[in-house]
Design a protein that fits this description.
By secondary structure, the chain is an alpha/beta fold. It has one domain: Rossmann fold (3-Layer(aba) Sandwich). Helices cover 41% and strands 23% of the residues. Strands 1, 2, 3, 4, 5, 6, 7 and 8 form an 8-stranded mixed sheet that branches. α1 packs across α3. The longest helix is centred in the first third of the chain and has 27 residues. The radius of gyration is 19 Å and the shape is globular.
Length: 285
Amino acid sequence: MIDGVSDPAGWQVSDEAAALYQRYLVPAVTAPWASDLVKVAALRRNERVLDVACGTGVVARLAAGGVGPGGRVVGLDVNPGMLSVARSLPAVPGPGIEWREGSVLALPFAAASFDVVCCQLGLQFFPDRPLALAEIRRVLAPRGRLALSVFAEIERNPAACALAAAVDRHLGSGSSLAKRAEHALSDAAELRALLAGAGFDEIAVGRARKTIRFPSAREYARIQFAATPLAALGAELDSTATGRLMDALAAELATAPGITTGDDAFEFPQEIHVALASAGHATRA
């Protein structure tokens, strides 16, 4: 999903984790946000759309319906496991989606190849954000649009905040780096400055909030350690130690501020920043 193979905080997962990501995290977390992002992008028929850091392709699939059979949709990711899952899923109405392995730091497309670029919950992980945004702007046509989202402050995301603190307590200080990295670009002013610095204009940045639901606190913790980069920590534990860790994390999550638990329910608010920006008129090499 995310660029930066050598970065321990980067969103790199195994093939098995990619399949679990599609099975558990897409329905619970990324699909609801994807629907909103595609609405923000305001896609039109026959437009050309690039989904950067596409993961298993939830945004790209929604975009295909928006542009219709005369459009073009490309999903690009550095993670081959994610792309393998994306290719295995049933086709959706619209143009056949092109799945490409590649880096946002060197997009394998000519200038002005797309009318819209989407990037859901990925920019915060890119090792060189200004370069990534410059590349995105390069491949956008004049007046092309960029629609992106990033997680808001971890303190405003109680499940992530509680999980990160609990992981550090049980596995050692700094163990939660991969989780905290999800919130590494949580300042709206910083996001706006990055976009402006890359030459985007008509920049609008807003905050959005949803209630996310999992069956239980333990299931939330289990999925985080199976389908995200936190899986690298779990791989070092045997089954007994893993079970004890999941129990301990679940107990702390269930009593954390801002989280609601009940029969077959573990609910918490999740906040993101959503940005829409125009590539402007300038000619780009």
